[in-house]
Design goal:
The structure holds two protein chains of two kinds. By secondary structure, chain A is mainly β. Chain A contains no helices and twelve strands. In chain A, 33% of the residues are buried. Chain B has no helices and eleven strands. Classes of the chains: A mainly beta, B mainly beta.
Chain lengths: 116, 116
């Protein structure tokens, strides 16, 4: 069975601070995929990144960066110089290679509030 | 490219009433998903379609929930009769390919259901 743990329920920062959202996952599969989604107050889940289990290279996209470490089963997400528009719930998710039948297992999410 | 469309955005009903939600996926996307997101939790998959066939409905409460995707495009999710614990946001997502865990799921804005 797959499990995703986001230990931080809520984080509050002041604009321009850096913030890291933690994600720890559990799976016995050797091939799996990790995702981050953003859910703003409007409710729509916005895809941010996908990473497969064979690619541990960290990724940077603008102010966003992701640190994938298989040794600790973690896939952490850092926002540099946070902005008010970054305020949202962020979900980490995991899927395994089950052919045509797979599903995303989500964590419970981290509510990030960026104050001006 | 238009995103995943859902309607209605909000619905309030009394318990034991029936309700239906509609989803139109991104054009050309073969796979469609319905998720239930209870407040404070991550989304949970209810049912997955590939074209008009069901791939996974293991977490769908079949005594009261039903879903169909007759022409392999849009889909409806029905609850009959509704219970208080069905209050949640119902999210529809779609992905491009027929199979494979590599696919990214794109989500609609959701329907917020309140059962009184």
């Amino acid at each position: 069975a797959q499990k995703v743990t986001q230990a931080q329920t809520e984080i509050s920062v002041v604009e321009k601070e850096d913030v890291t959202l933690d994600c720890v996952y559990e799976t016995r599969d050797t091939t799996y995929y990790l995702f981050w989604y953003k859910q703003p107050p409007s409710g729509e889940l916005v895809f941010l990144i996908r990473r497969n289990s064979f690619d541990e290279q960290n990724e940077i996209s603008g102010r966003y960066s992701w640190n994938f470490q298989k040794s600790t089963s973690s896939f952490n997400f850092t926002i540099t110089a946070s902005q008010v528009v970054d305020s949202a719930v962020y979900f980490c998710a995991l899927s395994v290679d089950g052919g045509s039948n797979y599903k995303l297992t989500f964590g419970k999410g981290t509510l990030l509030t960026v104050n001006p | 490219e238009a995103g995943v469309a859902q309607s209605p955005r909000y619905k309030i009903i009394e318990k034991r009433q029936s309700v239906a939600f509609w989803c139109n996926p991104i054009s050309g996307h073969a796979t469609l998903y319905w998720y239930q997101q209870i407040l404070g939790q991550g989304p949970k998959l209810l049912i997955q379609f590939q074209n008009n066939g069901v791939v996974d409905d293991s977490q769908l409460p079949k005594d009261r929930f039903s879903a169909e995707r007759l022409k392999g495009v849009d889909s409806t999710l029905k609850i009959q009769p509704a219970k208080l614990e069905d209050s949640a946001v119902y999210l529809c997502a779609s992905s491009l390919r027929l199979s494979g865990a590599l696919d990214t799921q794109y989500f609609g804005p959701g329907t917020r259901l309140t059962v009184l």
